[in-house]
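Researcher: Good morning. I'm working through a list of sequences from a screen, and I'd like to move beyond sequence-only analysis. For each chain I'm collecting a predicted structure so we can compare shapes side by side. This is the next one on the list. No need for commentary yet; just the structure.
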Amino acid sequence: MTKTKMGLAALLLLGLSCLWFGYRQYLWQDRQTAFYNAGLASYQSAQEAQDMKTAIDLFDKSLSVYKERTTASSWLERFLYPAPSRELAALANFHKAKALLRLKQGEPAVNAFKESLKLNPGNDYQSLKGFEHVTKDDIKRLEWQAFQVKYDLELLFKNNQQLAQGQGKGQGKQGNQPGEGKKQQPGQQPGNQAGKGKKDEL
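Model: Good morning. Structure tokens for this chain:
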């Protein structure tokens, strides 16, 4: 084979490789976000217990994609595709907790709240993987989301002393928190999109 033919063959192979990568990019979708948004829609429109279970299943799928992509992604996938969202995973756990509460599953809800706070503790973002490059506006949003989780968790303990004692909690003090003095249920209206909801809609 002459050098000219070898060069043409190499160019053809390079072109086919570029087309293949381009096709994969075209077909790729962010499954973490897709499952989360589907779970959110199911939660908001739920009329029966089965609808709420569907929402929980979708949140779990979103979380599964997050874990898979954070632990098993190859260097090529990390180069080609956006990083999985730690913020979105925290929100998925938060909304999963609220869906579990709607099904009167207190202990699993507490665990989901705690998982949310592990991902978004509300402080020290620059030292957390996935939050290294957050802006001041990002930090304000993340801090509010973490506050909502903490508030709903403390409210759950306040409304359910048996559950609080099982978690090693005493009589929780809310201080000057929203809804003080009311037998309020933990958060009811999640935001409409991942990380984009208004603070009063979380």
